[in-house]
Amino acid sequence: MPRNDPAPDAPAGSAPAALHAEGVGFGYDAGNPVLRGVHLEVRQGETVALVGRNGCGKSTLLRLLAGALRPTSGRVLVGGDDAARLGRRELARRVAVLHQALPPVPGMTARQLVRQGRFAHRGVLGMLRDTEDATAREAMRRAGVEELADRPLEALSGGERQRVRLALALAQDAPVLLLDEPTTYLDVRHQLDVLELVAEFAERLTVVMVLHELDHAARYADRIVALREGAVAADGPPREVVRESLLRDVFGVRGRVLHDDRLGTPYCRLDAPV
Ligand SMILES: Nc1ncnc2c1ncn2[C@@H]1O[C@H](COP(=O)(O)OP(=O)(O)OP(=O)(O)O)[C@@H](O)[C@H]1O
């Protein structure tokens, strides 16, 4: 399903942006900046794809938007509140993250991992109520991993594990979903399954996802933000951002941008490195 209708401009005095990076700078080591002055405002209900070359700072920006890293300059607002001032539980209630492949904990089953997504909703004694367990089960059903529930994570294929991680993020039931390369390890059928599932959720959630496939970004995002060397190089709807100049300047590739009349979105034919 193409999802390129831009979210309507927020009228003055309406709800705050779901996420707002205000002039964010960050470096893992002093004197070695990874992000420089990044401005990014994501409105509620938008689906934004973050694209760019390896190492340009996409995952780092996602971690900052999730409040898992603190900016060295600027600030990140989540639902209008400074992420640095929100506790871990409150952040987890507001933002769910599907991280790039993390090593599985030995012996942990898929069900146990997905149930961890409910931690922010547990009572003071850490008990999981029946309704919470039902939410975790529903997340597994939506991600198509019910039959994997009792398998240890280390015994799953990369693609199966990726879908379990998606179920974990869905189980968190947060209004903002951040996905770091959600299609990694997946065959083409499962890539589309996951992106269609995300599109379904995106109808009521705010989604920011790191994608390497520009064609997927053009098809499934309302807006594409391209990073180059830690700064925003392009930001706008796919038909404005996906251009031959983007392929050349951001990705270092010569290619053609074509238009898919059926989907109504641009797509790329890549020719050669520049
Ligand atoms: N934990 C870390 N400690 C130190 N440097 C890091 C750490 N994580 C990432 N970096 C560095 O920060 C830079 C940006 O990394 P990041 O993972 O954000 O890039 P990316 O755009 O997501 O890359 P990719 O497309 O390869 O996943 C890279 O130079 C990387 O080596």
Automatic annotation (TrEMBL):
Pfam families: ABC_tran (PF00005). CDD domains: ABC_Iron-Siderophores_B12_Hemin (cd03214). It comes from Nocardiopsis composta. This is Iron complex transport system ATP-binding protein. GO terms for molecular function: ATP binding; ATP hydrolysis activity. Residues 19-254 form the ABC transporter domain. The lineage of its organism: Bacteria, Bacillati, Actinomycetota, Actinomycetes, Streptosporangiales. PANTHER family: HEMIN IMPORT ATP-BINDING PROTEIN HMUV. Keywords: ATP-binding, Nucleotide-binding, Translocase, Transport.
